[in-house]
Design a protein that fits this description.
The protein is mainly β. It is about 15% helix and about 35% strand.
Length: about 280
């Protein structure tokens, strides 16, 4: 997969990137499709298939994907000892020189006064400018309370990135893991509702915890095109299921190629896809 020219990359939080730094819409040639490489990766809270926490290893694997935009699932931010109380989203962004938007599913009080909140969720890393971000609610069955019931909860992240002057909506999700598909059915309905509120080019990245032909995912394919890397993603060692997805809107985005990377840096394998954005 070829390397491509990229836009200037500066963290929004630093306040150093102005509108003048964004390439004009015609920079890539008016009417010509613009390439964008995206990836999705469930990072298992920073641990590999060996259950050893190693951000150096994961950062190296993410860098090797050479992706412009990456959706991450199972992301810890000061969550606990399993990830050394670290801001995994922020550290990966810094190591990869990418912007970051973190969308917590859970945000809990710290165990000690004055410490950071304990958070777990999904994130988007981007080499292109993130111009807006939102954390949407979808139906969830909490793992953090006794006797949970399905109810709206955050953790469906959305960002708008500007690629060669074109806005692209990027969503990252992590659907319910349970064998009973009822929560996933509700989540798919919620996902479609949220995405329908936006117009233009859309990319959905995530761990769906279901295979492409699962009945609960069927409504998604009415609106979206599966990148179809034609290889399983889980478990990372000898994978047998494809439950990690790159999906794109039928208008404005075309999948040129997709692949599953072979790595044991998590218990999932990442999916990377080369897209073409139509003007």
């Amino acid at each position: 997969m070829s390397l491509r020219r990229r836009t200037v990359e500066v963290l929004i939080a630093a306040g150093l990137l102005g509108a003048a730094a964004v390439p004009p819409a015609g920079a890539a040639g008016q009417g010509h499709p613009v390439p964008l490489r995206v990836a999705t990766y469930n990072i298992h809270a920073g641990s590999g298939m060996d259950n050893v926490f190693d951000l150096d290893r994961q950062a190296a694997e993410l860098r090797a994907l050479d992706a412009d935009v990456i959706g991450l699932q199972e992301v810890d931010v000061h969550w606990g000892t399993r990830s050394e109380w670290r801001d995994v989203a922020g550290e990966l962004a810094e190591r990869l020189d990418m912007q970051v938007s973190f969308a917590p599913i859970y945000s809990l009080d710290p165990e000690t006064p004055g410490a950071s909140r304990r958070e777990f969720g999904v994130a988007v890393l981007s080499k292109y400018r993130i111009v807006s971000a939102e954390n949407h609610e979808i139906t969830r069955l909490s793992t953090q309370v006794p006797n949970p019931v399905p109810e709206p909860a955050p953790g469906f992240g959305e960002v708008v990135v500007r690629v060669k002057g074109m806005p692209v909506h990027v969503y990252v999700t992590h659907l319910d893991y349970r064998g009973d598909p009822s929560v996933r059915i509700a989540q798919v309905a919620d996902t479609r509702r949220v995405m329908a509120e936006d117009e233009g080019r859309k990319v959905l990245l995530g761990d769906f915890n279901a295979e492409p032909g699962a009945p609960e995912l069927a409504p998604l394919w009415e609106d979206l095109t599966d990148a179809e890397p034609n290889a399983p993603t889980f478990p990372a060692l000898d994978p047998v299921k494809r439950i990690d997805f790159v999906a794109v809107s039928k208008d404005g985005v075309r999948v040129r190629d997709a692949a599953v990377a072979e790595t044991l840096a998590s218990d999932h394998r990442p999916v990377v896809a080369d897209l073409l954005l139509r003007r």
